[in-house]
Amino acid sequence: MVYDLIIKYGRVFDGRGASRMADIGIRQGRIEAIEPGLEDKADEVLDASGLWVCPGLVDIHTHYDLEVELNPGLSESVRHGSTSVVMGGCSLSVIYGEPEDLAVIFSRVETLAPEIIGSWLTKASSRSSPQAYFEHLGQLTLGPNIASMLGHSALRVKVMGLERSLSEHASAQEIKLMRELAEDALDAGCIGISVDMVHWHKVSGKFAGTALPSHHAAFEEYAMLADVCRSRDAVFQVTPNPENFASFLNILRLSPGIWRAPLRNTILAALDMDGAPLLWRVFPLLLFVCNKLLGCNIRFQTLAEPFTIYADGHITPLFEEFSAGIKLNNSKTREQRQALWRDVEFRQEFRQSWSSGWRRTFHRDLYRMQIVAAPDTALVGKTIGQAAEVAEEDALEYFMSLLEQYDTDLRWVGTSANIRDEVRHKLIKHPHILPGFSDAGAHSRNLAFFDNGLSVIRQAVSVGFMSAERAVARVSGEAAAWFNLDVGRLVAGAKADITILDPQKLRLPIPEAEPFSDPVLGGAVRMVKRDTDPAVAFVLINGVQVVRQGEPLAALGRESLGSLLRQLNPARSQREALRRFRNRISDDVALPAESRYWDVFLLKHQHPMNVYCHCFGFVLMYAVPALALVYGNPWLLAFWPLSQAVGLLGHRLFEPSPVDQRDALFSWRALLSLHRMFILVLGRGYQRELGRARRHSAAAQH
After folding, report:
1. Which tens digits make up the pLDDT trace of 658-670?
2. Are residues 337 and 241 in the same domain?
3. Angle at 281 between CA 87 and CA 239, to 5 degrees
4. For 307-333, what is each residue's pLDDT tens digit?
5. Where are the beta strands (DSSP E) in 542-662?
6. What is the number of other CB atoms lying within 10 angstroms of the CB of residue 572?
7. 407 shares a domain with 433
């Protein structure tokens, strides 16, 4: 065979937690072979000696819905190794709605530059259907693969109109129409639905300062959208309101799967908040209760780096937390804001709301807010508190004076979460917390987390808090598997989306974010990270080189390389979704819904010690009631639960795997399988049956 490309001499990471030395043969954009010492001919050979050949990274939370229309290559993400991105988060998408209305709900939430909104509006047009939208996306010269979710805010605007969507609950008829449109969007190609409740998110335009449409829904509306996702095993993404615990409880109400199919629910965000240093401990505990005991399928998302946000005067999501900040962001001109500052009552309101503990996601510590740029260059490098001391003024009064005098010419930066490395690493490696939340494509002047996936690998290599193989899997195969996308693995037959890393350069410090005047944004400033010695040696999409030594190549954005990603195997009903969930062998692997449970049981009981524990539990199941009967002592039945406890202990110690709550308590299928296991172990036929199940599983996954 003659390959288009052979990647030779590299260490190949499969995206599932393993690596080996091998060559990769690529033909017509697909991986044809992965094996050591490929001697076949090739049009091109790429020498990967000393390099790590990894699956393309998967960014599970971006806001590229507008930018992809202007810059389909999405080079800022691809240069950091991402070859697949999920967009349509935080209830925002452009699948439904008029462009002018969509611009109103997008621009302020995502702090998008007017240049982006203006450029997009000149090209945008309303779509007649989700099918038409995806046909349009498919005609773009996509760089990375694109998966899209349906935004709830956009759906509400489509059904209710902009004004009513910002103030009213939907009627029963409108909820019914939303269901129909949501089902159409999922059938057309959306991988899920996103809703939003976080208090930072406001609209612009005529209704400036009003919370996004998704915030104004009744619980019945959220429940309907969750039901649509549940019936297809699609993703339901939620950003809860951190100041309203009821919003979080409502999300959890929708999630359990003990008596129904669980909701494939991803929640933003699990962060180590400065203002609540013990809060991070809640996330692992909550996930244990929900996923292990209540049959949920929840994945939190966390950020791989400290949550550092730059601000131009008042222009920052952090100011949306308090009333005076909202008024500043509502003002369209510098003159309007200066008029506010001259108002004594407004200054008093700013002082009170800034100092209030209510709505305090951001720490608002003026001694931790550093001045990055100002007309008075002597201020640069100082914190606002330090500069106030030099001026011999009250720190908050001095900050207000700076905002009045310099407005957006005052640029400052603050970090409000994820500062503690050891806590951040614990969140990153938790199996039910996915590294995501990059917001790539949004907040162009405020943050730069395009490298979120790459950063996980860099920190794992530098600090050693997890293996490199595990780190690569976390931001490729694991993320893709949970989102039900056919990317993120290096196996024969897979699309040749590959990121090649230099392990030595991964140990270099993560570069600081810096401003860059981006031609894609019409010259507007975007915060970026630039490695002087890039850790990303090559990126290939569809077998074509698009990045070399950290720099995008001409093919990116000019050739159509990326694909539209749809759910790999969407469920056809809630019953099918439930059977698929109950057929899990691990968090990432499940046999098809129609598979025999006996095969699932076998593959969850492979470790000899786990098998022996279950056999011992089987003996206890009959021995305890027998002893109670023989001795006439019903109190001995109190030891009956030990039979289940021994089996669960076997999983805990020797073979961690998803435990079906109904099987753990009682189900006929589990009981019959346990009997069959015991008989086969006694007859020494268990290993033969296990080998058959392994072969069946490998064929099904292939």
Report:
1. 877 778 777 889 9
2. no
3. 25
4. 999 999 999 988 998 999 999 999 989
5. 544-548, 551-552
6. 12
7. no
